[in-house]
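Lab notebook page, bench 4
Experiment: in silico fold of construct C2
Operator: M.H.
Input chain length: 872 residues
Purpose: comparison with the prior construct
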Amino acid sequence: MLKTKRTAIATALLLISSHSYANTISGKVLDEMGNPVTSGEVQIMGTNKRVDINLDGSFRFDNVKLGLRELHVASTDFVHASTPVQVDEQGVSQLEIKVLSSSIEVLDVTASAFHASNIESASPINVLAGENLDHKQAPTLGDTLRNEVGIHSTSYGGVVSSPIIRGLDGPRVLITQNGLDASDASRVGPDHMVATETSSAQQIEVLRGPATLFYGSGAIGGVVNVVDNRIPSDLDTEGELALSRNSVNSEEAVSGFAKSSIGDFAFNFQGFYRDADDYRIPGFAENEHAHDDHDEDHDEGHDDHGDEHDDEIGAEGIVENSQYRTQGFTLGSSYVFDQGHIGFSVEHLSSLYGIPGHSHGGHEDEHDDEHGDDDHDEMHEHDEEEEDVRADLNQNRYQLGGQLNVDTDLLSAINFGMAYTDYTHAEIENGEPGTRFSNDTFETRIEVLHQPIGGWRGGLSLHTKLSDFSALGEEAFTPASDTRIFGLGLIEEKHFGDVLVQLGARVEHVEIDVSNPFAPDLELHGHDEHDGDDHDDDQGDEHDDAHDEDHEHDDLMALDAISVDFAPVSLSAGAVWDFAEGYNLGVSYVYAQRAPSSAELFSFGSHIATRTFEVGTLYNIDEDHVELNDIDFEMETSSNFDISLRKFAGDFGFVVNVFYNQVDDYYFLAETGLFAEFEHSHDDDEHDDHEHDDHDSEHDDDHGHDDDHGEGHDDEHGEELPVFAYTNADADLYGAEFQVNWQATQYLKLITQGDIIRARVDGADGRENLPRTPPARLTFGAEFNSQNWYIDAQVMHVFEQDDLATFETDTESYTMVDANVSYFTTVQGLNLELYAKGRNLTNEEARVHTSFLKDLAPLPGRSVMLGVRTTF
C-alpha cells in the first residue's frame, strides 16, 4: 500500500515536471551576412543553463521552463546579443539569432554577478585574455596591465609592480584571485610583490563601478581579478607549456598547466619558475638631472656633500639589486556534476628578489663573513660580492570553491568561495633577516543569485574577511593589527527596452584592533632649504641631546591597545542605452565609503622601500615634534560619475570614457618637509642583533640624498629620513580615456588609444596636486593576424608630468616602441607557437612618475624575449 502511494506521488511529480520542463529551444546563430557563427555559447539569462554553439551555428536547450525567457549569445568576435523568447508547451524551434561582427574583442567578465561583457557594462571594464594576454604578459601584474587604457603601474625597479587605476592604488584597488582577496602585503608598500601569478592566468579583469560593490570598500578604486582554472569547472583535458629567455636581464622562465579528469573528478596542476639577473638600462640608474636640480636648492652648508655625490651617481648600464627568483605551483581538484562543481586547491608561491635603490656595493670585503648564509648565497654568483637588501616572500594558499545551479522557482544559482592564506615577507639586509611582514587571512564569499523577479536579475553577496597582519623588526613602520570585515551586498539589473539598468548596494562593518601602537617619541627638524635658518648650531645641539636620550624607533614605548570600527555604506546606479545598432551609452554613479587601512591610521616608522619615515593619521606633527591625535577617524567618501560612449559593430569601433571622482577625506601620503633622525646601534655588544647597522651607516655616507629629498647625513646624526605623513583632505580626480579600433583589412587592424588624469586636493595653500599622479599617454599600434602569423607593433608616448605636488620633481616625457612576432604551426597534433617580444626597441631612458624609485631605477632598456609555447 505504501509503495503504491509513493509510486503515485512520483508519477504526479513527473507529470508536473514534464508539463513545466518538457519544452525545447533550438535554433542557429548567424552573422550579419547570414553565415553561421562557429564558436561561442548561448545562455538562458537568469539561469545557469548554457550550451556551446556548434560548428554549423546550431544550439539546443531541453527542459526549459514556460514563460518569457531571454537568450544571451556570446562570441568573442561578435557583439553579444540578447533575444526575448516566449516558451510554451510546444517549445521554440528554428529560431535564428543574428549577431554583428565587432572590431573590439568582446569578453565576458567572471568577477561580475551581472552577465556582463566589456561593452555591456555601465562602467568601463578592461579584460585581457587568450592571445592578447599572452602577448602582454610580464613577470608582474602591474607591468602586464600598465599599457591598458586608464591603468598605470607603481613600477618598483622591475621586480615589483602593482596596478594604478585612474590614479588610485594601494588599499583602494583590490587584487583578487578567482574573486577572493590575494591577501598579500602589496597594499601596504610598493616593494611588496602582488602574490598572484599571470603566467597561469586565463583572463585578467579590471572592474570599476557597480559590480565592485560585491567586493567591499577595499575596491573603491576598482577590482583586478586574476582568473585561472585552479579549481576545474569541467572535465576537459587540456594543457600548456611555455619556455622563454629575455635579453635585458637574462631571465629564464618556464610555466605551464595540465588538466584532465577521471570519471566525474577533474584535476589540475599549474606551475612556473623565473630566474633573472639585474636588468640593463641606457645611461645611469640615478637621474642626473634630478640630482642637479636638487643641488641647486642646497645651501652652502651642503656643498661638500653635493660635490661628493657628483663623483658617484650610481651604476651605469644596470639597475643594481633588481634580480629575482620566483617560483610556485598549484594543485587543484573538483567534483563536476550536472548542476555545477565543487573543488579545492593548494598553492605555494615563493620569491627572493632584490629591493633596488638600496645597493651597498663597495663594501663586500668588510662583510664577507655575513655572505655565507646558505639560504641566499645560491641566488646569483655576483651577490657574493655585493650583498644588498632583498625580500624573501613565501605564501601558502588553500582555496575552496564551487557553483551550484539550483534553478528553483526562487533561486538560480549559488556561488561560493573560501580561502585561507598564510603570507610572510622578510626583508634581508646583508644576509641577515630584518623586518618580517606576515598576513594570515581567512575569507568567505557566498553569492546567492535569484530567478528573475519582475524582470530584475541579480542576487545577494555575503562576505567575511579576517586578517591578522604584523610587521616585526627595526623597519616595522606599521604596528600589528587584526582587521575583521563583514559585508552584505545586493546587485540587480533589468532591461527596459533598449536600456539596461544596473543597481547595487552594500553595507559593511569593519573593525581594526591594534594591540601595540607606537608612541610618538620622536623629534623632527627641517633643512635650510625648507626651513630657512632654523637648522643652526643650537638646533644641532638640541638634536644631539635628543640622541643622547635614545630617541630611537626601537625604544618607543607601546601605547594602550586601540580598537576602531567603521560602517561603510555604498550605493550605485548605472544604465546602458543601446541608442542605435552597434552603439551604446553607459552612465553610472557610485557613492562609496571606505574604511581607512591600518597603515593609513597607525604607521609610525622608517619604511625601507620608499626611504621615508611614515606617520599615520593617529599622530599630529606640530612643528618639530609629534603628538597624538584624537581617535576619531573619518571614512573616505567617494562620489564617482562615469560616462562611456561606445561604437562596437563593424570594422570601425571606439570607446570614449569621461569620469569625475569627488572624494571627501581622501587619505594620502604627503611629504612634510621635515626629517626624522635616529641612530642604529653600533656597540660591539649589540652587533649580533644589528649586524646591518654598520652597513646602513656606510650606505648613508656613500649615497647621501634620496631621489627627491635633501638628506644631510653625517656621523653625528646617524640616519636621517624625510617624514611623510598620511593626511585626509577633500580631493578631485577627473580625466578621459579613449580607444579607437579600425579593421582596415581582413588581416590588419589599427589601434589608437590614450588617457589623461588630473588629481587635486585641498592643501594649506589652496588646491594642490596629488603626489605621483600618472602622466598623460598616447599610443598608436597595428596588428597583423593571419592563419600562421601574428605581428603587432605599438608606439606609446608618455608626456612630461609637471603637475606636481609639494616637494615633487617633474618627470620627463619618453616614447616606447614595442613589438611582438608569433608563428603558429602544428607538430604531431600539438599546437606550437614560436614568438619574439621586443620592448623599448629604441633603448629610451624612461622614468615612471608614479614610482617611488623614479630617480633611482628607470624602466628596462632594449630587450628581446624569445620563447616557445605549446598547447593541447
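Observations: The chain has nine helices and 45 strands. The chain has a mean pLDDT of 81.
Next step: discuss at group meeting.
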